[in-house]
Every structure is written in C-alpha cells, then in structure tokens.
Automatic annotation (TrEMBL):
Region (Disordered): 1-23
Name of the protein: Tn3 transposase DDE domain-containing protein
Length: 216
C-alpha cells in the first residue's frame, strides 16, 4: 500500500517566503537609494561609456532640463536647408512628431496624426549620424528601433552644428540666414566694382596681327 503523500510537501517554505520578501525589499530600497530605475540605468550607461571611450550616452542627463525649451524653439522658427541634403531637417520633424511618446525605444518609421490626417514619419540616422552615435541609438536585440531619448539629443546636436556651418538656415534671421540667398548676382556686383559689360570686338577694332593673318 502506497504511503500517503506528505500534506505539507507542496506548501511553500515559510523561511523561503521570508527570504524572497526580504530580497524584494532590498531591491526596492536599492532602486530608491539610486533615485529610481531611470537613474540606475543612467549610471550603468555611464560606466559602459567610460569603458567604451564614448561620452555620447552621458549627454542625455544634461539635456533633460533643456528639452522643453528646445522643442518650443523649433516650433517657433522656420528652418530651411541650404543644400539638397535634408536628412537633419527630416530628423527634426521626426522627433517633433514623436515628442509625446514615453517609451524608451521608438521605431524608425512611426504613424502620426498631422492636422487630423494619419500619416507616417521616418528618420534615417545613417544619413547624418556618426558611427559613435549609431552605436548609442541602436540595439542588436531591437532591429528597426532607436533609443528615443538619445535620438533627441543626437538630432538637436546635429541641428546646432548645421546652423553653425550654414547648412541649415532660419528664415528671417540675420545671424542664421541662408548665406546663398545673400550672395550678389553678377549684374548686381558689376556696377559696384566699376566693371562695364564686355563688348563684342568689331572689324575696325581688331588688332593689326588679326588682319595680317588673313582671317576674315
């Protein structure tokens, strides 16, 4: 006759429950002491950046307090590309369209609503971001996704650089105007330089060597 099963065999050990409960409290305390999981993740990124000799992941913590002002700024001004390359401008429009998202990772192509119409916006970081930035923005475990917070820092950094170089201009601005639009045309420059328009050479004004060669 088989022995009756131990009625307490399937019951959890009270000592085990106590250990698990205590471990959970310690984990929560550690997170609280580190100012939350976001700060702990930032600290982890800082260590990784130090060992990888890449400071770019560290910029996001300094960017947070300036984020509202930067979005207000790009909403208030009209940006224009001074060349055929619009990759940074398109990236600015992408982060503007996705500013209200809260997820840590965002798809490179996202559906958005613009003026009541459903559309999609895309960003191509390969078109402008450096290799160091691409390593920060992408994760092999998340193909087609980008680190949203770091993407904003990256885009605004490149926007500042493009404004300084003149590759992006601010419509109506003096300091950041389109330099190509400010260049004078040849017709505008001639009178200021005291240069008259060239005249065609007639037969009577041709040099003597021209006539002696027998050229008509």
């Amino acid at each position: 006759m088989a022995a009756d099963p131990d009625p307490g065999a399937d019951e959890p050990d009270q000592n085990t429950e106590g250990v698990e409960e205590r471990t959970g409290r310690l984990v929560l305390k550690t997170l609280a002491d580190a100012c939350g999981i976001d700060e702990l993740a930032s600290a982890t990124e800082a260590v990784s950046a130090y060992h990888g000799n890449n400071y770019l992941p560290l910029l996001e913590r300094f960017y947070r307090s300036h984020r509202p002002v930067l979005f207000t700024l790009v909403d208030a001004i009209e940006l224009e590309a001074t060349s055929a390359d619009r990759s940074v401008l398109d990236a600015v429009e992408f982060v503007r369209a996705n500013r209200d998202r809260r997820s840590d990772w965002i798809s490179e192509t996202t559906p958005v609503e613009v003026d009541g119409q459903n559309t999609t916006v895309s960003v191509d970081v390969d078109a402008f971001a450096s290799d160091a930035w691409r390593k920060v923005l992408r994760d092999r475990q998340r193909p087609g996704m980008l680190a949203r917070r770091h993407l904003e820092v990256c885009v605004f950094s490149y926007l500042a650089a493009e404004l300084r170089s003149g590759d992006i201009a601010v419509a109506g601005s003096d300091s950041y105007a389109n330099l190509h639009a400010q260049l004078m045309t040849w017709d505008e420059w001639q009178p200021l330089a005291g240069i008259s328009a060239p005249r065609p050479v007639s037969r009577s004004t041709r040099p003597s060597w021209w006539r002696t060669t027998g050229t008509s």
